[in-house]
């Protein structure tokens, strides 16, 4: 320096920058002195000893994390207390040792959090990179768009500046938040992965297919694996989530009620079986889900990607199974469905889960300022019925499709319909003295039911069964014997999940997905009632099967024709039902616009999502069919609707689940007395076991696939480069991970997904009279020009009734 400038001791510059004295005075007036700057060693000749100098330097390097949230973020990400001094002053006579690689990344991020974007700027380099990553994630910007945005800003900012030159530089800096990803080469046919002892192989040990293309080093196929440990450790590194991760052990529970899996019998049984694991409330309970999707849509080329997602159950209900806490762990490559070979790609995950169970990983709890050994356990899996077979190894097709009844199933094949039916398979679940057991007229002719429900096999019994008949894992030698044994016993393989030492002690290992079961039941009911061509279960073959079984002679065919059934609507009633659906109006966001799903010519509903079927099944079916169907048909359909509605409540009671376990059997028997045998496929049978699963595992919305389906829709939208599907998903996921972590430290005025306001909120903070009812005090944004009109008599009565039944003010006069 030429001596005309001095170090600036303000909070922002912190003695790291040189300015003229007038500029320094201005900075001090606006921003104040740097924290703990008592010894002015930079502004006069200090005659003190080196100890004083060292003390002064250490104090000046203390971080004011309250004024800079991004320094606080760096400390949290690396599991350090914000009050901890990251380094100490070393006198210049000694040569300091270079930090290890991880520490160097920490210092680089810390320096970026302190470095101004340009001289005198109020924003740091790290905060700028964090905002760029968040914008790319939330608006799904392409990498090229981010590169051009960085170039545009760099050209217009004062020189010199620390604006990143593109997305690559931003991503490279944010990688220090410990978000690793591994690329593992796979066999072209999915026989094996080149991992551990097979890492150096050049061809598949099963089929002999080459590992690389031509003479190069490009593999034919590769999978992506995102290590789970760093993701779990980061949950305790943030003050936003660290305390919430202990909610499962600290919340107050009401006796007999379940609002979270922690209140369930499966959770409590696991704690009793593994007391050492349960003694540390910060150990993590996980659920695994997988399903496939086509990134190119139905009209594009056939390509199936199977992401494997894990989510922790330690969090409270309002955080559990939300997007920021869903960890993409494995991307199983396409283009085909892996089927039973999915275990090949789960090997790294199972190995890490075993390590997390036996040894754990060191973690730092920022809320308690404690180091501890973090361990984790997998509670169960969540999937649709075909993926249930892939994960469990039990065949979910044919006569043994039910994973509870197993070999003791009473399902049989229809001679004319050529389908497997579960007709007359539910009387065995009734009480011993129930009259339906002795009914020879409405069920299979001249047959009474005296047997009881099939025995339930626990995990140890199933594992003994698999070991007794020597079932193999799909990647073991001799796995070809599985196909021969499966025809006899119903198992396709020995699932890789049995490698987990605690898996056999789990009460529930694989959840039946209520979402798909409810949707399939609704589709069968609606298509049969509306007599939809090609989809109805009541057809000529179904009538011939009735005649062969000797039941309901009034429906038998005659001269190639047959009478209309009492459970089928005529055209007039069909039009009436569709007209009612067309004029229905729902609360904002409650369901899609059903009027767009109506096909009046074919008397059908098309394009309905699973949630639309969920709403129709539970809310609309009893109302819409009450005046259109005979009471004997409408009553059991209403009972089935009420069963699904009460089953999917956010808070369930043990007494109610025991009651529904008995009532659903009677309801299904009533339906067997109405609909033909072809109506009862495996989806109509599985509701028998749903109440039991809810009784054991807790509320079903923690065990269905709704949130994972929505998350996979998000992954599908992240595919920007069609030629690199897996890489696109991987890069987008890493960006979202960094974005979610950084948004906790954004200033309150920064808009991000975590701070989105309701779309109808005008944000005006308008005032309301004190005597106004609470339901009229919400701030909303009007659409279009306002107009005034008087309510009709029916509207006035509806509003009056709603206020009396739903407002707190009206309850005071009860």
SSE arrangement:
Elements: E1 6-7, E2 18-19, H1 21-31, H2 50-60, H3 69-77, H4 101-114, H5 125-139, H6 143-156, H7 167-174, E3 182-186, E4 221-225, H8 228-237, H9 247-250, E5 257-258, H10 265-273, H11 275-278, E6 284-290, E7 306-312, E8 327-332, H12 342-345, H13 347-358, E9 361-365, E10 370-374, E11 376-382, H14 385-392, E12 412-413, E13 420-421, H15 459-468, H16 481-489, E14 510-511, H17 514-529, H18 540-549, H19 571-583, E15 598-599, E16 604-605, H20 610-624, H21 631-647, E17 652-653, H22 654-672, H23 682-685, H24 687-697, H25 706-717, H26 725-743, H27 793-806, H28 808-811
Parallel strand pairs: 6-11, 11-14
Antiparallel strand pairs: 1-2, 3-4, 4-8, 5-17, 6-7, 7-8, 9-10, 12-13, 15-16
Helix pairs in contact: 3-4, 5-7, 5-26, 17-20, 20-21, 21-22, 22-24
What does the model show?
This protein is α+β, with helices and mostly antiparallel strands. Among the domains are: 514-534 and 564-685, no CATH class; 759-814, no CATH class. Helices cover 38% and strands 8% of the residues. The protein is built from 28 helices and 17 strands. Strands 3-4-8-7-6-11-14 form a 7-stranded mixed sheet, sandwiched between helices. A hairpin with a 4-residue loop joins strand 15 and strand 16. Helix 5 (125-139) crosses helix 7 (167-174), helix 17 (514-529) packs across helix 20 (610-624) and helix 22 (654-672) runs antiparallel to helix 24 (687-697). The longest helix is centred in the C-terminal third of the chain and has 19 residues, at 654-672. The protein is globular. Residues 44-66 and 82-103 have low confidence and may be disordered.
């Amino acid at each position: 320096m030429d001596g005309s400038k001095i170090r600036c001791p303000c909070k922002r510059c912190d003695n790291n920058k040189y300015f003229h004295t007038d500029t320094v005075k201005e900075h001090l007036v606006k921003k104040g002195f740097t924290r703990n700057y008592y010894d002015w060693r930079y502004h006069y000749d200090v005659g003190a000893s080196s100890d004083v100098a060292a003390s002064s330097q250490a104090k000046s390097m203390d971080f004011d994390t309250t004024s800079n949230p991004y320094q606080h973020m760096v400390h949290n990400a690396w599991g350090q207390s914000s009050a901890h001094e990251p380094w100490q002053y070393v006198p210049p006579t000694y040569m300091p040792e270079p930090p290890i690689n991880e520490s160097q990344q920490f210092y680089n991020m810390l320096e970026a959090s302190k470095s101004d974007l340009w001289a005198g700027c109020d924003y740091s380099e790290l905060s700028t990179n964090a905002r760029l990553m968040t914008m790319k994630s939330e608006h799904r910007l392409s990498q090229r768009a981010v590169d051009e945005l960085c170039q545009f800003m760099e050209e217009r900012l004062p020189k010199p500046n620390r604006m990143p030159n593109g997305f690559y530089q931003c991503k490279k800096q944010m990688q220090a938040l410990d978000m690793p990803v591994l690329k593992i080469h796979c066999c072209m046919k999915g026989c094996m992965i080149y991992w551990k002892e097979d890492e150096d192989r050049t061809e598949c040990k099963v089929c002999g297919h080459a590992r690389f293309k031509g003479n190069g080093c490009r593999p034919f196929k590769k999978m992506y694996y995102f290590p789970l440990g760093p993701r779990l450790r980061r949950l305790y590194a943030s003050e936003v989530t660290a305390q919430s991760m202990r909610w499962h052990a600290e919340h107050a529970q009401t006796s007999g009620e379940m609002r979270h899996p922690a209140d369930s019998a499966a959770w409590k049984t696991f704690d009793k079986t593994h007391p050492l694991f349960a003694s540390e409330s910060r150990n993590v309970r996980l659920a695994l889900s997988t399903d496939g999707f086509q990134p190119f849509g139905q009209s594009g080329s056939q390509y199936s990607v199977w992401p494997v997602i894990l989510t922790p159950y330690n969090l409270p209900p309002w955080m559990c199974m939300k997007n920021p806490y869903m960890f993409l762990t494995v991307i199983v490559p396409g283009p085909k469905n892996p089927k039973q070979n999915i275990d090949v790609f789960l090997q790294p995950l199972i190995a890490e889960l075993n390590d997390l169970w036996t040894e754990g990983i060191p973690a730092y709890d920022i809320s308690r300022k404690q180091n501890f050994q973090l361990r984790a356990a997998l509670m169960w899996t969540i999937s649709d019925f075909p993926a249930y077979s892939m994960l469990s190894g039990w065949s979910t097709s044919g006569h043994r499709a039910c994973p509870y009844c197993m070999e003791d199933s009473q399902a049989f094949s229809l001679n004319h319909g050529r389908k497997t039916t579960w007709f007359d398979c539910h009387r065995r679940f009734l009480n011993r003295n129930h009259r339906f057991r002795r009914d020879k007229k409405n069920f299979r002719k001249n047959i009474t039911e005296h047997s009881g429900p099939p025995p339930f096999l626990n995990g140890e019994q199933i594992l003994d069964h698999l070991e007794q008949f020597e079932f193999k894992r799909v990647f073991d030698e001799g796995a070809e014997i599985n196909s021969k044994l499966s025809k006899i016993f119903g198992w396709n393989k020995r699932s890789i999940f049995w490698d987990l030492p605690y898996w056999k002690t789990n009460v529930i290992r694989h959840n039946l997905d209520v979402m798909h079961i409810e949707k399939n039941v609704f589709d069968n009911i609606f298509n049969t009632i509306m007599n939809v061509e090609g989809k109805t279960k009541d057809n000529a073959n179904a009538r011939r099967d009735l005649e062969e079984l000797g039941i309901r002679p009034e429906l038998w065919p005659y001269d190639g024709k047959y009478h209309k059934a009492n459970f089928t609507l005529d055209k007039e009633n069909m039009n009436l039902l569709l007209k009612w659906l067309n004029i229905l109006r729902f609360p904002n966001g409650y369901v899609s616009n059903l009027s767009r799903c109506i096909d009046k010519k074919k008397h059908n509903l098309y394009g309905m999502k699973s949630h639309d079927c969920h709403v129709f099944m539970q809310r609309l079916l009893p109302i819409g069919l009450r005046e259109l169907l005979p009471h004997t048909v409408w009553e059991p359909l209403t009972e089935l609707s009420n069963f699904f509605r009460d089953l999917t409540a956010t808070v369930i009671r043990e007494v109610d689940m025991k009651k529904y376990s008995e009532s659903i059997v009677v309801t299904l028997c009533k339906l067997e007395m109405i609909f033909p045998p072809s109506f009862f496929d495996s989806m109509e049978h599985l509701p028998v076991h749903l109440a039991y699963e809810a009784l054991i595992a807790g509320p079903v919305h923690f065990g269905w696939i709704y949130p994972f389906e929505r998350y996979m829709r998000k992954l599908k939208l992240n595919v920007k480069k069609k030629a690199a599907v897996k890489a696109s998903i991987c890069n987008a996921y890493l960006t979202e991970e960094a974005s979610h972590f950084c948004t906790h430290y954004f200033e309150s005025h920064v808009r991000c997904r975590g701070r989105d306001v309701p779309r109808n909120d005008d944000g005006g903070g308008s005032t309301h009279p004190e005597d106004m009812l609470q339901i009229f005090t919400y701030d909303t944004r009007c659409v279009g020009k306002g107009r005034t009109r008087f309510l009709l008599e029916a509207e006035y009565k509806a509003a009056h009734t709603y206020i009396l039944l739903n407002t707190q003010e009206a309850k005071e006069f009860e």
